[in-house]
Structures are given as structure tokens and as C-alpha cells.
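Build the 3D complex.
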Amino acid sequence: MARKVIVVGGGLAGLMAAIKTAEAGVDVDIFSLVPFKRSHSLCAQGGINAALNTKGENDSIQQHFEDTIVGGDFLANQPPVKGLVEAAPGLIYAFDRMGVMFNRTPEGLIDLRLFGGVKNRRTAFAGATTGQQLLYALDEQVRKWIAAGKIREFIGWEFLSAVIDDEGICRGITAQDLNSMEIHSFRADAVVLATGGEGMIYGKSTNSVICTGSAAGAVYRQGVPYANGEFVQFHPTAMPGDDKLRLMSEASRGEGGRIWTYKDGKPWYFLEEWYPAYGNLVPRDIASRAIYKVCVEMGLGIDGKNQVYLDLTHKDPEFLEVRLGGILEIYRNFYGEDPAKVPMKIFPAPHYFMGGIYTDWNHMTPIPGLYAAGECDYMYHGANRLGANSLLSAAYSGYICGPNMVKYIKGLKKSADDVSGRVFDQEKKRQVDIFEAIYRMDGTENPYTIHEELGETMITHVGVVRYNDNLKMADEKIQGLMERYKRININDTGRWANDVVPFVNQLWNMLELARAITLGALNRNESRGSHYKPEYPERDDDNWLKTTKAYWTDSGPRFEYEEVDTSLLPPRARKYD
Amino acid sequence: MPEFIHLKIKRQNNPNEAPYWEEFKVPYKPNMNVVSVLMEIRKNPVNAQGKKTAPVTWDCSCLEEVCGACTMIINGNVRQACSALIDKLPQPITLQPLSKFPVVRDLKVDRNVLFEHLKKVKAWVNIDGTFDLGPGPRVPEKERRWMYEISRCMTCGCCYEACPNFNAKSSFIGPAPLAQVLRFNHHPTGAMDKEERLNLIMGDGGITDCGNAQNCIEACPKRIPLTTAIAKLNRETIVHSIRRWFAS
Ligand SMILES: Cc1cc2nc3c(=O)[nH]c(=O)nc-3n(C[C@H](O)[C@H](O)[C@H](O)COP(=O)(O)OP(=O)(O)OC[C@H]3O[C@@H](n4cnc5c(N)ncnc54)[C@H](O)[C@@H]3O)c2cc1C
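Done.
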């Protein structure tokens, strides 16, 4: 039998990992909740970073490296970040050759724009739908491999767990067909999770509703540590909304957008005043805290609500259409006002998880054969991610993970085909039992209501500003929700395309991860990047320059900490004013 | 302000059972859209008669009208449910699944054929590999703009739903993939496989099956210039067939 790789996830990271594996001659099966074209990567708007240095600004790979490390407040291990920024130009060129419709300079070269936390133009973009265009390009390449028979797709399948043999090695997965509801096990010599972010843990966020983090939660419960969970990025500029907090890309500020509110009856450009060196383009954690301060602490939000203006009205409408058309359309469609004429109303929203599944620098988790790549890993962004760096890290991690898996497979003494069927049957039975128990849930609680309350708890107490008392309260509340979970009524016992039953399964994984995030935040008594505690306002390198590793136990997460590799750039104060 | 949002939903338990209609009354809140109303129903799955019922099944993901998942027929028009704002819709609001694709359950349909068609027309640039060979070909910004317009197609199926020449039995490849052929044939590297793509769309189910009804362009939520693209492609296939004839 051919030695095979399973990729879970059809976003940028998963598709890139699959292509690289197929290029190395190894067969791949990709599992995804949705057709690849509908993966969350397509929501990315602003762009992707690479120090192409085509703007005469002396940009360099070293500068990209330093901006990323400083932006992440020194929490990222530095050698992997070095690899990321070095590969970036080559990756952009590969996307360019695939036909991505990047905006062009008058000479037909890839144009670059400015993003937050940097001073050079470094962000390649395709209008304001860059993620969509990159994802579609990979989707097209994967389709070519599918037509050639090298890649197979399992669309509408949900990963449930890794199959781990008696030696502790990952030999495949279990997954559920979301139409027939059948659960099967699949053999593979290497498995990579590229399952994206976890925005749904916060209820409403900028993420797609399929971003539950359930896959990460599942392997966390199987013994893989969850790293740096407490670092959650709040994007400063999202439209407030009842069902979703729709993002207005940082590109809007990169192209000249200004943030303001009224003070003493006059427009007040507080970011420009507080941070003259970077102005509206300070990193996201800083901008979010500033907006939070202006609205919540100073009470200066527009119309007395938690919102300030993001203003593009001084820009030429045609310029805006060509460079930001995609997000203007979203604002017009959902808010009914034209950002070219009226300033947009925005407020910070949960957006990106710097933390994630713990892996080594080859992207392998402590379970041999099980890898993680993309937003679901924890590798590149430390305590705060710079804008336009995560399309890059998603693509890059897939890019190196593919060949790493191929190398690992070549060194295996025994293939998954030689592993006893009992191992697969047992894991499958464990999952079937879990789901049968869910089908029998006939209590009084509604799972979607529990989820809503989880989101409210997280956003209120584990948000932009954190207090230890509130974090403790949040953990108690989550445990309360876990109790109520046991009294769920699933309302739908159908055995065909049942949406509720998989959601109930995801919900438990979300609750487990929510505890790891909350308690990680409670433990970390310092302020670093996105994690801010007024009671401990300074970064504390002596005690906290370390990676958090949460291990699942019956009685809640157990924490270990690990040194950060700062061998390339000694930690220094992080300043943007 | 109305107290309730009144919905009539065409439901179906599975592909083999007959469809039926069920009505719902959901408490009104301002700024809701069809997706957020469906989300309310699953928090309290009770129909307009006050009877407990199964929550409605439907597809959705991004909620910003870029993923295409939540496409359905709302008050008779094909569109995305997330951007269908309740305050702008006359009531009762009727929701139906797309009619040209097999129903999976309720409002969820199987649109796999859309992706199969993209495969059929080889909608990709045939690169040798993802390794670093330096930048791709230069592209004039003017050219890029129209190609970008076409490459925003989210494969939602609206143009198929609106097209009188596409149905479950016809072999017509549909409007969206034809526009993709035009885009890939004009990309400097994609153009190297131009003849092959043209051959693929000149046979049965190809471009000549387009009846020029022009419904697709009206239905496209991204306002992709589908009819212009198809007309242009049509001229190119004619030139190509004449060349082919001379070569034979
Ligand atoms: C609104 C928005 C705008 C953004 N803009 C930018 C930007 O301009 N620049 C930038 O660099 N970054 C941006 N980001 C971040 C960036 O988009 C993401 O971090 C990145 O796309 C993640 O890619 P991924 O491949 O890791 O995951 P995703 O694209 O989320 O893909 C996850 C995949 O996993 C699958 N999956 C998940 N769980 C399971 C399961 N249990 N079983 C089977 N399949 C599963 C899904 O179906 C999906 O295919 C933005 C994010 C948001 C929310």
C-alpha cells in the first residue's frame, strides 16, 4: 500500500501542505468541513508580508524579522521566525506564478502597501480580498492534483481524533461524514492538522462560524499541549454586530485611514497624538487598548457607545475602490453606508489566536506523526501577531510541513498499514460511544445558548483588559457551563445531516480550550503583547519570558513553561511612540 | 416595528422524502439577517404553531458574503442569506433551497458539480511546482483589474440557479466556469494552455449551450461581468475553430 499523508483542513496551511507533499510524490487525502474555497482563509483582506524591497525603502529580511519579533513582544522562538521571513519573498513569487491577481505597479510588478507595526511597505495585496485570492490559487493547484489522482478530497467530513497506537505514534484519524453522520477511521503515516483559528470560543468574532478550534481541543484532550493560549489578538477595527463582528482590514489604515472620536466637541486623533512615530499604524494590541481606553474608561465613544470612527472620507473614491473595494462592499452591504462618504464605526473584536497546538520547529506535536500547521499552531507570532504575517505563516508552515512529513515517513520502521486493526477499531468505538451519548441527551439546556454564554464570558473577562478576579470568575463560569452541558437537550435526533450533534461535540472541546486560555491568562502575571493586566502593567522577562504549555487533565489544565529561544535578537523594550 | 419576523421555510428531511413547508415566528430585533434569524430558531426550535420541531439545517460560514456557502432562494430571489437584511425584506419571508442542485436536508444542497466543472475546464495555471523560480510574469494593472473581477467568483451557484440552460439533467458547464476560462486564457502563463481549454468548452455542454438569456449577470452577487466574458470567449472559440480547420 502507498504510504499516505492525511491533511485536515483546506485553508492556506492545509492546501499548501498537501501540494508540497504531492510534489514530493506522496499521496494525500485532505479532510475539510467545507469545500476548500469556503475555508476561513478567504476572509483575509489586507495582504501578505514579504520583504520584497521593491519600493526603494531599503526594506530587508532582517527588518521583517525584527518587526515580527518586536511586534510579538519577544515571546516567539526566534529561529523559526527567521525561516519564515527568509522564505517569504519566494512564497509570494510562487503565488504570483500561480496567477494570483496581486495589485500591480505601473511597471506590472507586485505592488506593496503599508501595514501596522512597520515603517516600510511590505504587504502584497489583491484588492481587499487577498486571502480569497491566495486560497483560490491553492484550490486551483490542488484541483490539478486531484485531476491527476495524487490528492483525494473528503469534503464535509469532520476530524474527531487522532488514532494513536500502543507505541504512542499517530497512525491516522477518525472522522465523521456530516451528511450520513457515519464515523470512520482512516490510516495514514503522517497527519497534519491545519484546522485554523478558534474565534467561536469568543462567541462573536471576526472569524467564520466554522472556526471552533474543536480539532485543536480534541488533540489537547488526547495529550498534545496547548501553547500560549492566553494570547488572543483583538483586532482594533471591526464593525459591531449581533451575529458577527465584521472586520475592516488594517489595510484601511495602511492606505491612510484615520481613527478618531470627539473630544470637547472636536475630532480627536488619539492614536496619532499618543503614538506620533507610528500613528494609526501601531500594532493591533496597542490600538485595541487605546480604543478600549477611549470608549470604556474615558467614555468618549461615538454616540456614547463602544465605537470610534475609522475615517477614509478624505481619500479619492476610485483609489479606495481599487485598493479596498472588498471591505467597502462589506460595510455597504451590512451597514448601508458608504465609507467613501461617511466614516465607519468600529470597535475591537476577537480576531486571531497567537497560541495553539504545541509543536517542535518541524511542526510535529509531541505525538510522533501528528503535525500542526497554520493558525492552529503557536509558532510564529509570540504575544501579538503583526498584520499580514499570518497568511504568510499559514502558507509557510504548510510549505515546510509537507516535506517534513515526507522525511518522517521515510524514516518509519513500520507503516500505518502494518498496525493492528484493533487500534483503529478501538478509537472509532470511543468516538461512536461519545456520539451515541450525545444523541441521548434529553435534558433542558440548549447547546447554542450555552455557547452564547461562553462567548459573553470570554469577551467580558478574558478580553482586551484582564483582571485576576475576573479571570477566576470566568473559569468558574466556564465550569458551570460544563455542568449545564451535561443537561443539554439536542432537539434533533435525526441520523442524516444533523447539525446539532456535531456542534454539541465541538462545544465541549471549546469549553476545554476556554479553560486553558482563561487559566493561562490568570497565571501569567505580567503584560505582554495582547495579554494586558492593569495590575501587572509591565512585561516581566525575568519570570515570564517563557512559552505556556497547557496539558489536559480530568481536573482541568496543568501548566508547564518552556524557555523561549531569543538567540538572534536580545529582548529590548517595545516602543512605538 | 413588527413584533415578530414571519418566516416560511421549505423543509425536507433527506433527499428521499417529500418537501414540506413550515412557518416560524421569531422575535424581532433590529439589524438581523436571514442567517441570524435561523440561528435564533436553533436556540428555540419551535414553529409558528408553538410545536417543537427540529432546528433548520443550512450551510453558512463567513457571514460576510465572501464564502458563498449560505446561498438560498429568499422571497423568490437567489442570494446569500447572511447579507439578506430582515429590515429590507417584505414578510412573510420565504426560504427555499437552491432548486438546481440535489437537496441534502432543508436548505442545505449539494453543489459539488460546480467544482467538478472547474476541474473539467482546467481552471488553473499549470505551474511546474511551488519552488522558488523568482517572480511570475509582469501583468499590466489594467489587465489585472478585469481578471481580478472574474477571480472573485465564490462558486456560490447563483448564476447556475438563474440560468435557463442549466438544470439537473443538462450537461451545460454553466456561466461561472466559462468566465474562468477567459481569465486563465488571458493570464500570460495560463495562455500556454489556451487551446486545450478552448477545445474543452467547444464540445457538448460547452459554450454553445449558452442561450444568451443574460440572467446570470443579474444574479451574480459579485457583479462579475459574466455575459461580457462569455461573449468574448465565444469570439475566441470561433477564431480558434477556424484556425483548427486550417490546421487539419
Ligand atoms: C476577517 C479576517 C481577516 C484577515 N486578514 C488577514 C490579512 O489580511 N493578512 C493576514 O496575514 N492574515 C489575515 N487574517 C488571518 C488569516 O486569514 C488566518 O490566520 C489564516 O487564513 C488561517 O489559515 P489556516 O489555513 O490556518 O486556517 P483556515 O483557513 O481557517 O482553514 C481551516 C480549515 O480547516 C478545516 N477544519 C477545521 N476544523 C476541522 C475539522 N474538525 N475537521 C475537518 N476540517 C476542519 C476547515 O474546513 C478549513 O478548511 C485574517 C483573519 C480574519 C478573521
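Chain A has three domains: 4-233+352-417, 244-349, 422-545.
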